[in-house]
Amino acid sequence: MRVVAAGRRRGVCLRGARPPPPRGGGARRRAGVMFDLIAGFVYSQVLLACVQLKLFDRLAAGPVSAEDLAARLSLPLDSMRLLLDAAVALDLVQHRSRSRYGLGPLGAELRGNPSVTALVAHHAILYRDLSDPVALLRDGGGGGELAAYWAYARDRNAADLSGDSIAPYTELMAASQPMIANEVLHAVSFRDRSCLLDVGGGDGAFLAAVAARAPQLRCILFDLPAVAARAAARFEATGLSSRATAIGGSFLTDALPDGADIVSLVRVIHDHDDAEVMTLLRAIHRALPAGGQLLVAEPIAGVRGAEAIGDAYFAFYLKAMGSGKARTFAQLKHLLEAAGFGDIQLGAGPMPLVASIITAVKRQEVC
Fold first, then answer.
1. 90 and 18 Cβ atoms separated by less than 8 Å
2. DSSP assignment string, 214-241
């Protein structure tokens, strides 16, 4: 998974667009932040409209007038101008000469990052599930569109899901994997490892990125059968099938493949409740040799610089999804220790908004 929320002016990779707080005294800054909170939903809808209309793609070819855009997008001219002026205010679009419009700084960054635009489009589901946040809090979540979208999260028979059922979320996850892989490869070296098992690895985008940087590494992907089939097709198409294998199954009911000396969980743990997480971690512990390493990459609650993403965005997203929760490093460390892991370290990734990196080692004794 997954995120674009209202955020700061730069670093659009996960936090979207909004104007900076006004300069001046503390009261003015606080007023700006306060209004951003009040207006944040409207900002997000401006961004969503731009993405749905593929406005940034149209502006990338060069400046365009409002009249031309209105005709191309089948919008009334006054509505087109309304959207363009709102996008200018959010740094997504800029005024150009002869009453034309071009890409703004954030619009250009978004267009260059398809994983983020895919997430923005996905958030139309989230907005509907959050239309009554108090009802969500009272009802416990899990009864809306997000729960149906992430079909595997609460289904004990998830291994039986069809290709059509897993296609939307697998494609969304695949869009974000290159970005996650960059974070992981910045923090972790695979040079001394011989075999990587990626559990919940989707269509293999993460493994393919790691394999490109670690040519000695043999790779195994484990995911639901319909998902693993897509990964196998990717490995075949990219020439990785000689050293990358995709195996279908469910970690809740099936043993994990053995032979790996490092296992990765990329945005997997936070999708599941504690009981399922412990089942997964114990399965990984059994599959690893003594001294084998576990790598966890996901947004973590309470991380400095990413508090809004972990403690607000992910907390409510997962509440609406009806499965999992945003956890602090201390909570994750407790789960890892209970499963038999030690030497648990929180790495300093370059962008904790995207993911934080935790490494752990299988202790000699069996838990």
1. yes
2. -TT-EEEEEE-HHHHHHHHHHHHHTT-T
CA–CA separation, 271 and 107 (whole Å): 30
Q: Which amino acid is at 221?
A: L
Residue 53: partners with Cβ closer than 8 Å, 6 or more residues away: 73, 75, 83
Report the alpha-carbon distance of residue 11 to residue 14 in Å, rounded: 7
Question: What sign does the CA torsion over 50, 53, 55, 57 have?
Answer: positive
Cα–Cα dist 223/200, whole Å: 5
* CA gap 155, 108 in Å, rounded: 39
User: Helix, strand or coil for residue 318?
Assistant: helix
Positions of E strands within the chain = 64-65, 93-96, 100-103, 195-199, 218-223, 244-248, 262-266, 293-298, 341-347, 356-362
Question: Over the Cα atoms of the chain, what is R_g?
Answer: 22
Q: Is 262 helix (H, G, I), strand (E, B) or coil?
A: strand
284 CB neighbour count, 10 Å cutoff: 25
Q: In what order do the strands lie in the sheet with 262-266?
A: 244-248, 218-223, 195-199, 262-266, 293-298, 356-362, 341-347
User: Strands 93-96 and 293-298: what pairing?
Assistant: unpaired
d(CA 178, CA 234): 14
pLDDT tens by residue, 89-145: 999 999 999 999 999 999 999 998 888 899 999 999 999 999 999 999 998 888 899
Here the tokens at position 160 are 């039986």
What tens digit of pLDDT does each residue of 193-246 get?
Answer: 999 999 999 999 999 999 999 999 999 999 999 999 999 999 999 999 999 999
Buried b / exposed e over 294-311, threshold 16 CB at 10 Å, is bbbbbbbbebeebeebbb
Q: How many CB atoms lie within 10 A of CB 132?
A: 10
Domains of the chain: 12-114 (1.10.10.10), 130-362 (3.40.50.150)
